[in-house]
Structure formats: C-alpha cells, structure tokens
Predict the structure of Guanine deaminase.
Amino acid sequence: MTPHLLLGQTLAFTGDPFLQPWEDCASHHAHGGVLIEHGRIAAVGDGAMLRAAHPQARVTDHGGDLILPGFVDAHMHYPQTRIIASWGKRLIDWLNAYTFPEEMRFADPAYAATIAGETLDLALAHGTTTLCSFCTIHEASVDALFDAAATRGMRIVAGRTCMDRDTAPPGLRDTAQSAHDESARLIARWHGRGRATYAITPRFSPTSTEAQLDALGALWAANPTCLMQTHLSEQTDEIEWVRGLYPNARDYLDTYESHGLLGPRAVFGHVIHLEPRESDRLAEVGAAAVHCPTSNTFIGSGLFDLAGLKARGATVALATDTGGGSSFSMLRTMAAAYEVAQLRGQALHPSQLLWLASEGSARALHLQGTIGTLSPGAEADLAVLDLASTPAIAQRHARATDIWEALFPTIMMGDDRAIRATWVAGRPVPRPTRSGAA
Ligand code: GUN
Ligand code: ZN
C-alpha cells in the first residue's frame, strides 16, 4: 500500500499539560506532516523533510489547516440523537418525558440502524472519530451501532444499557438474568472484533436492582478486558433517590463498588456532587470521571470539579453526553468545559482542553497510544481543522501570535464548519452533504 503524506500544521502532545507546564507538553510544526502507512501513523514531523524522505508517498496538502488526532467522545447516548435540545426539564423528568419514550423506538432494529448510522456520520462531520456510547436495552440496538462503526472503519466503545427496576418503564425493562445473558452474547459477538470494545452498561443505580448489579459485576469479572460504563452523581435529586433505594450503601459510588462494578476500566459519566471518599476512591482505583459540560449546564446538573479531581490524581475524560448534552461538537464541549472551569475560578489552557478531548478521553477508555494521539504507531484517526472557519473566528485568528492563541477562537466559537476533513484508519471520510440547506 502506498504511504500517504498529509501536509499542514501539526500539533502533538509530548506530555500531560495537567502535570507539566503547557509550554513543555506539545510539539507544533507550522509546516508539518503526518505520514500514514497501513492505516497507522508512521511518522510526524517537518513536512518538507518527510516529503524528501518518502518521495513515493501520495500527498494531500492541507496548507495552513491544523492536523490533530480525531476527537474522542468518552460518554454519549446514540439513541438520544433525535431528542437532542429537548426543552425545559431536569434529569429525572427529562428521562421520563423524552429519553425513555425515544429509547422504546429502538425495539425496531431498522430504526436503530438508521439512528446509529446518522449519529456516526454526525460525529465524523464534527471531527469525532471514536465514541463511547450507551445503547438501549435492545440487543439489536447494540448490533446496529457496532455494525455501523465497522462499516465506517471506526473504533467504537458501546454496550447494552441494562435496567431491571420498576423505576424504568415496562417497555424498557429487562431482568438480572437477561441483562447478563444478552450482554454476554454481545461481548462474545463484538468485544475485540475489528475496532470494537464492549462496555458493560448498567444505566445507573436507580434503574437496576442489586441482583442486576451483582450479575453485571460477575460478568465483568469474567470479562475483565471489557470496560464498564454508567452514571454517577449527576444531580442532587438523583443522589437522594439513590440514598433511598440503597440504604446500606456508604455513598453513590458504593452502590457500584459493593457489586463488583468499580475498577480501573470503569468509566463514570458526570461525577459532579461527590463525597470526599468517592473522589479519593475513584483516584485510588484509576477509574475515569467523564466531564460532560454541555449536558451538565443544559440539564442543570452542576459544575464538575476538574481541578479537584485532577489534584487527587483522578483520570478525567471529556464527552458530549448527547442527547442530554446540547452539541455533537467536541469543540463546543471544550468551550463549555472552559466556561464551567471559569465559574469555579479555574482557567483551563487550550492545551488542557485539547488534551482532554483527545489523549485524556483515550486514556479513560484504555486506548492510550492507539487513538487520540499524533504519534507513530497510533491508528490514523485524524481531524483537520480550519482555524478561520467563520468571519468571527477568522478576525480573531488573524491577531494570534502562537498556535494556542490561533486555536483558542476555534475551540470557543467553532463547530462542524471548522472540520475541514476527518480521517479514519488512514482514509478520508467522504464529506457530509448538508441536508436541509437547499
Ligand atoms: N442518568 C441515567 N440515564 C441518563 C441519561 O440517559 N442521560 C443523562 N444525562 N443522565 C442519565
Ligand atoms: Zn449519559
């Protein structure tokens, strides 16, 4: 296979900007290049030097556009694509009014296939090359997403959402046994096949019985390379609800921990209103806390304590949480993370925002070195950004004196118009047609 050389600006992390001064954490080439061979990154460096060293390579010249690793969205719900931006509710009412009725439609495998494809195409158009998604209780909803990802060559993490308590509506309820058995079948069918990772997925403690959490804990113990994803401490009403349902638990995290659902491959969404024991325990175990800032403001959940969790050494990732989140864009999500941090008196540097949306999320999904990084050996999933994609961004970008200042207006004001190209496993993704534009 002929190697492919992408020319453009490149920006690659060499360290973690939460642990080291940001000036020491990244390598920027104004005229850089990324050499792709067999779907992987073979080299990153000065464009002219790479061109001279690989005269046989096909060349795609992105000019002044910025080549980055594709974004990694560490927590989202593909079945909620059609209910994004649904008005006026907080978490529990929002679930009952919008989410559960929509998730019931996924009993139809054809509907699931349609939404799976649409969601992945939206993600790619926004420069997101990997999603970690909840599905519904329907086994076919999981097949639909893994199938759609395989068709597009995408690396994906997903799992069948499990709910067996009478707090979930009758049409969306399973049992401890069926949740275990169907999840086990899906693991056998998909986990480690191509670019797929299975995540065992109890929705959250309020919709599972202890018997179901036990069954899923046992399933995870039997399949330890799977991830486990769920929700933790998103709204204060929800935490009160958990306290009533689990009177013997020390705290919300304990409802998972005491059933074998806490470990380094656990990925918890939201994680806002924590007791000190919970923050310490997450950090100690190496489980991931996923920041979902557009959702946390949209549903009115609260302000994630990024600095506090990082100071404890916790693994933190970034995610859209669509459709609770109000955007498919990881650029918009970075902007929201910046705004939330400002409200907590913390100024996040653009390097920290970008790191969370790429390397941080990849680490949380135990895919570090594989995706979310511009480094040799990684899979060639890339997002190419136009740093002047709208007049408002362009006029601010024109004043920039370094790459971070050049990138920050796109982080704060950018959306899918800033995504010039997306590459998956070394291949360019066909450009989306803008439906509804005519
Ligand atoms: N908690 C339990 N289920 C959900 C969900 O679908 N979205 C959000 N944001 N929180 C949840
Ligand atoms: Zn969620």
Notes: The chain has two domains: 4-70+373-428, 71-364. The longest strand covers residues 26-37. Residues 109-125 form the longest helix (17 residues).
